[in-house]
Amino acid sequence: MTVRVALVDDHDVVRTGLKMYLSLDDTLEVVGEASNGLEGVAMVERVQPDVVVMDLMMPVMDGIEATREIRSRFPDVEVLALTSALEEHKVNGAIRAGAIGYLLKDASSDVLGEAIHAAARGEVRLHPEAAKRLVREFRAPDMREHLTPRETLILQRIAHGLTNKAIAVELGVSEPTVKTHVSNLLSKLGVESRTQAALYALKVGIATLDP
């Protein structure tokens, strides 16, 4: 399946390089680009990509605000943050705005391509240092005793980046059953996304950052 990708970055040379990298993968198609967050939101409305690769530090509207706007208006469009920033407020801001992943601009073309495909499947991909910062700063009450054993197993697998379909296969249950458990998990944990649920799992030790 071809993943339709949009690029939002204020540097022409960065967008040109990204297009060159992504053109090496015939399952990725760049369908639009923009030079700031405001243009990015309008472009997403026009072309409806599967994944937006989003810089964070841009004029007019930054990537965090653009991510929040895109995820609010176009919930089927995933946003992958790609930036040079590792400051904790940037990492936290992007994830809380709805980004499914966070990579640095020095990521190899293979890593970036895999992360885009993962985002299109609804899987989380985080740069290791970004993950450490997120886990350190993540705030949530310890709800482990309120989770059922099945919910705990599913939460572990969310933290490992598995989709509902993959979790269903691994646990031998139906995908709708997993979807119901995930919805209950998000509600119990008081979080809005699978990425935040994964961070909770890492924070309380249900999953680890180690491979």
TrEMBL record:
Gene Ontology molecular function: any one: DNA binding
Example of a GO biological process term: phosphorelay signal transduction system
UniProt key word DNA-binding: yes
InterPro entries associated with the record: CheY-like_superfamily, NreC/VraR/RcsB-like_REC, Sig_transdc_resp-reg_C-effctor, Sig_transdc_resp-reg_receiver, Tscrpt_reg_LuxR_C, WalR-like
Keywords assigned: DNA-binding, Phosphoprotein
Domain HTH luxR-type: 140-205
Coiled-coil parts of chain: none
Response regulatory domain segment(s): 4-120
Record keyword Nucleus present: no
Matching Gene3D superfamilies: 3.40.50.2300
Modified residues (4-aspartylphosphate): D55
Official protein name in the record: LuxR family two component transcriptional regulator
Source species: Deinococcus yavapaiensis KR-236
